[in-house]
Amino acid sequence: MQGHDNTVLAAGCVLWRRSPYGPRLEICLVHRPRYDDWSHPKGKLKRGEDTLAGAVREVLEETGHHCEPGARLATVRYEANGRPKQVTYWAAEATTGTFVPNDEVDRIQWLPPGAARDLLTQPRDRELVDALPAALHHP
């Protein structure tokens, strides 16, 4: 979907869960073989699609997990393939689901925030990890 000025509109989530191994958070990152990068689950909106609905759909498509969206995070703007792109993010808690590798995403990793931050390919995605604790009111 495009905005009025040819901007590509997209949405995604910083997908998190409580660690099965203790009282800490883990963040889900997706690996896209096409770009060989690690990022948060996100994607282009369909024509007329609500931004939050698109973010939740992309999480399900890319990670196999349903989620419960929470606080809205940053809207990130950058250029992709010579066009402006705008991605709106939410914090979202993973609920049910199972990852199945596909053409778009071949691997996911659940990592503590520090490790997730280090693995992310784009510096702009690290700021979303930094914003998560405040968004969750989590120390």
Count of DSSP-assigned helices = 3
C-alpha-based Rg, rounded:
14 Å
The assigned CATH architecture is Alpha-Beta Complex
End-to-end separation in angstroms reads: 37 Å
Shape descriptor: globular
Major sheet characteristics: 7 strands, mixed
How many domains? The number is 1
CATH topology: Nucleoside Triphosphate Pyrophosphohydrolase
The overall strand count is 7
Assign a percent range to the helix content.
10-25%
Task: Tell me the CATH superfamily.
Answer: Nucleoside Triphosphate Pyrophosphohydrolase
The average pLDDT value, as a whole number, equals 94
CATH secondary-structure class: Alpha Beta
String of helices and strands: EEEEHEEEHH
The low-pLDDT segments are none
Structure classification: alpha+beta
- Beta percentage is 35-45%
Q: Can you walk me through this structure?
A:
This protein is of the alpha+beta class. It has one domain: Nucleoside Triphosphate Pyrophosphohydrolase (Alpha-Beta Complex). It has 3 helices and 7 strands; from the N terminus they run ββββαβββαα. The longest helix has 14 residues. The mean pLDDT is 94.
Task: Explain briefly what this protein structure is.
The protein has 139 residues and is of the alpha+beta class. 24% of the residues lie in helices and 44% in strands.
Which key phrases capture this entry?
139 residues, Nucleoside Triphosphate Pyrophosphohydrolase, 7-stranded mixed beta sheet, alpha+beta
Provide the fold topology.
Blueprint: E1 8-18, E2 25-32, E3 37-39, E4 42-44, H1 51-63, E5 65-80, E6 83-97, E7 107-111, H2 113-119, H3 123-136
Parallel strand pairs: 1-6
Antiparallel strand pairs: 1-2, 1-4, 2-3, 2-7, 5-6
Helix pairs in contact: 2-3
